[in-house]
Amino acid sequence: MNTHLLNTKTLQSTLLCAGTAALLLAPVSSNGQSSDALIDKLVEKGILTVKEANQLREESDKGFTAAYAAKSGMSDWVSALKFNGDFRGRYEGFYRDDSSFVDRNRFRYRLRFGVTANMAENFEVGMRLASGDATASGGLIDPISANQTFDNNGANKGIYIDAAYAKWSPVNTPEWSGSLTFGKMDNPFVFSEMVFDSDYTPEGLASQWTYNLSPEQALKFNVGGFVLDEIGSSSRDPFLLGAQARWDAAWNQHLSSSIGLAGLVISGKDGLNGGTATSSSPVPDINVGNTRGPGGQLLNHFNPVIADAALVYMLESFPYYTGALPIRAGGEFMHNPGASDNNNAYAFGLTFGKAGKRKTWEVGYRWKVLESDAWYEELVDSDSGAFYASSFPNSNQRSGYRSGTNIRGHTFKAAYSPYDFLTLAATYYLFEAINEVPSGSGSSIGRLQLDASLKF
């Protein structure tokens, strides 16, 4: 009998049994690291060949999956269960050079926790819970912010469903990859806050495809159809439809680029009207800026075309920065032919570095112009806004600071990550209204955000 083969199989069985026991008694991550280290050591000493080591790792993985499934009661078609989340604490201040304006200061937090199940046949199911303010009209939850304000004498706060989706990735070859997602999901389109607030999670159906032209270049296609509201008394529910094409290229180890072209359409816009000036929309009414009639109805259609481009240059090193430092310059332009005027938007900016990893930082500047009817007010960034001495025409929002469209101004940002899990940031927005209300009243206002974000 082959003594070496016998010893190897005996060793494999022993390791599998010991590994399974350790899995049930120790954290998952530490067990995976320790078993891999042991197998590597056995290869190093010549006890196992590389082929035998790879077979042992595969058997160990199968053994772990079976043991974990038996221990947790997880279905055998679930191959992995991942948890993730983040917490952000924020101080926020609003400042205006106006003796009649009272500076505002508040503290807020954002908490998100999610779980993803990877399943057989390339299926995935995910969900995420998040904090949020019930500040929208009708007590609805703000769809473009998961921030929660410290107020009401420490009253308990709510947790809501921020994402709930099923995803199938049927194509995964060296040339093509593709997926189909249904539910409430992270935005499948690649846009800045000029088009969609970063916290917005649309509900509907989306598909994403990538074709690799080469190892350095890829074409990406994103399409989606989303429900904006469901109206029981009407068959003309408002929907959001979109398609986007992108070309990402790495020209050498230092230079890369990204170019995108997209079209968006809101159908059934009349379903977004409440019919009265005191209730301009049955959906959460957070922002202002769109042109509305006396009854609060939207007067223009929204079918914008958006083009964007970015160039990134990587410096091999930079003082007080860990790793290669990226310098990114980019801009975008949006035109809405559904409106006859006030229908354009554009932005451009420059960023040095990228925070998020240990001892990395970033500093950046961005200029943005977003005219009133370039895009639907309730989808854009809720962090940049202007001061209105009087309420915006035919809107149910009162006077004061209001985010949305009809703004132009500057954004300054600096961030530093002392650890992989912690990022400290300061952002200052200085914006004004393009069309002041009333005219000549002055609308410039500063908004400062100081953030500490921890991810897990």
Short description:
The protein is mainly β. Helix content is 14%, strand content 45%. It has helices at 3-25, 28-44, 50-72; strands at 78-95, 104-119, 123-131, 148-149, 159-172, 176-184, 203-214, 217-227, 239-250, 255-267, 305-315, 325-335, 344-353, 360-370, 385-388, 400-403, 407-419, 422-433, 445-455.
Describe the protein.
This protein is mainly β. It contains three helices and 19 strands. The chain has a 16-stranded antiparallel β-barrel. A two-stranded antiparallel ribbon has the order 15-16. A hairpin with an 8-residue loop joins strand 1 and strand 2 (104-119). Helix 1 (3-25) packs antiparallel against helix 2, helix 1 (3-25) packs parallel to helix 3 (50-72) and helix 2 (28-44) runs antiparallel to helix 3 (50-72). The protein starts with a helix and ends with a strand.
Strands of the widest sheet, in order across it, are 1-2-3-5-6-7-8-9-10-11-12-13-14-17-18-19
User: How confident is the prediction overall: mean pLDDT?
Assistant: 88
The helix content, as a percent range, equals: 10-25%
Helix/strand/pairing category: mainly beta
Give the distance, in angstroms, between the N- and C-terminal Cα atoms.
52 Å
Radius of gyration: 26 Å
The unreliable regions are 1-32, 275-280
Shape: globular
